[in-house]
Amino acid sequence: MSPLxxxxxxxxxxxxxxxxxxxxxEAALALQLMLEQVATPAQIGAFLIAHRIKRPTPEEMxxxxxxxxELGPKIPAVEMSDPVMIxxxxxxxxxxxxxxxxxxxxxxxxxxxxxxxxxxxxxxxKEGVPLIxxxxxxxxxxxxxxxxxxxxxxxxxxxxxxxxxxxxxxxxGLVPYREQIGKRPPIATLELIWNPYQGRSHIVAxxxxxxxxxxxxxxxxxxxxxxxxxxxxxxxSCDLPRxxxxxxxxxxxxxxxxxxxxxxPQDYGMGSSNVPWPEDTTTATKMxxxxxxxxxxxxxxxxxxxxxxxxxxxxxxxxxxxxLALSSELLRSGxxxxxxxxxxTILEKV
Length: 350
Hints:
alpha/beta, 2 domains, Transferase, Pyrimidine Nucleoside Phosphorylase, Chain A, domain 3, single chain
């Protein structure tokens, strides 16, 4: 047992009226003791559920991010003309709507906006389809690459993926606790703002509940990060919905206030139902292949809607309408499919 960790646990787990928030340094230490397994399993489980019930503060989340930045892997900076866009997604995956970000990432990279993602395998509590499986559907397996090989792919194709089980085994060691406590721990929010890249970057973090967005925003500000995007996306992802207004938070620099952007898909001819997840990867593979062939189908329109927005935000289009047109043209011309083939070829050689 760790007496030091027990003192931290007592602060967050003392009840609704007597608990105390941790300082940034204390939150960083608590996560370090859990990642290094200095805390016992009983202590780790108790902390994760108690901290969820208490709800993390932005200062605590900033402290946990300190520890991830210190102990986690980092892709070395690659010479790029544009910042790398970090398209963050909940690690426990998707089970209702079709995940769009791998295809979105391909469109962005084709246009010159580099994208880095991170994640693991199927994970509690949702056990939804993870990003790594969707990339495999596209003929890309990131799980075997070293960090150096990932950096090479990022430099050559503008695409990369940090795979938790291989690159951050200490964090992977906390995954079983998610199933045992039956709830997402505060680490699930931390994963949305963790950035495993050392160079210029732009974080895009999805969220569901407004308090989570506030925690994300204020924790990033505490880290001195002034430019990032939050999206009330599909199942907490950064995928823009098509059946409702897209609610987006924009932080662009210290001189501009926090901005709220609301996009109505119907105003751009994009209003429709979100594409459901087909539940099997065989069907998903065929659907993604149809998108790459620019076939007229709901999933293609969803990818154009998302890619158009991020091309606009990534500086490759001067308006959302221009971004939508560029996204459509890149798919229709076959350039996105060609870029995927280039990625596959490079992965075969690393």
